[in-house]
Amino acid sequence: MRNSVSILGVPFSKLTLEETTLYLAEQIRKERSGLFHLITANPEITLASQSDELLQEIIRSADLVVPDGIGIVLAAKRKGEPIPERVTGYDLLLRLLEKGNERGWSFYFLGTDEQTSRQAAEKISWTYPEVKLAGRHHGFFSPEEEPGIIAEIQRSKPDVLILAMGAPYSDKWLHRHRQELSGVKLVFGVGGSLDVISGKVKPAPAMWKKLNLEWAHRLLFAPVAKGQKSRWRRQAALPKFVYRTIIRK
């Protein structure tokens, strides 16, 4: 995308949240030969891409990468190519659900645990009654179950496929199955957003958001899914990112 800035080789969009929402709505509306892959990348993912060749390939092939973290915004400012604001997966999901409620879009949700998946789907159906639930499945499926899940997504052909299996696993999973999911219009990962929507995790208070400290709220209060690294270990990447993009010339 032309209106972007490169941070450690990752091309971050300079669009605001509202501009991004409208841009994605246009991608859903028009006919495409394949799916539109959006990546919400934070400093941790950006740093991980430096030593992960597969992740680099996935980022290069993505249709849009948005700045899901205040560290990205600060790094762009330090570079002299400012990004107006963060565009988080959670905020983007809520905006697209609002648009989907107006336009009757269909959504498929893949990821998190079964109880959280069910509760999030129920909450979404109640809050956005005109959104069509194309289907859902928890993220703890076996290799034997995977073909059936892919077949279900193929049959339902959702306008939006939401992946809640953690980053960068969600994007790597999509990379493996992209050709099989060509009937989907838009795909992106939302991290732990379904945990918040379901009520399992409380959203960060307004003051934390205003101070760009949502990451600290998650670090202190959000549970860690089985199989994922602890949040404290993951946040250890932040000082490295700050040094490489903000402090070091």
Automatic annotation (TrEMBL):
Pfam family of the protein (one): Glyco_tran_WecG
Ranges annotated as spanning the membrane: none
Alphabetized InterPro entries for the sequence: WecG_TagA_CpsF
Key word Lipid metabolism present: no
GO molecular function: N-acetylglucosaminyldiphosphoundecaprenol N-acetyl-beta-D-mannosaminyltransferase activity
Keywords of the record: Glycosyltransferase, Transferase
Entry EC number(s): 2.4.1.187
PANTHER family linked to this entry: PTHR34136, UDP-N-ACETYL-D-MANNOSAMINURONIC ACID TRANSFERASE
Protein name as it appears in the record: N-acetylglucosaminyldiphosphoundecaprenol N-acetyl-beta-D-mannosaminyltransferase
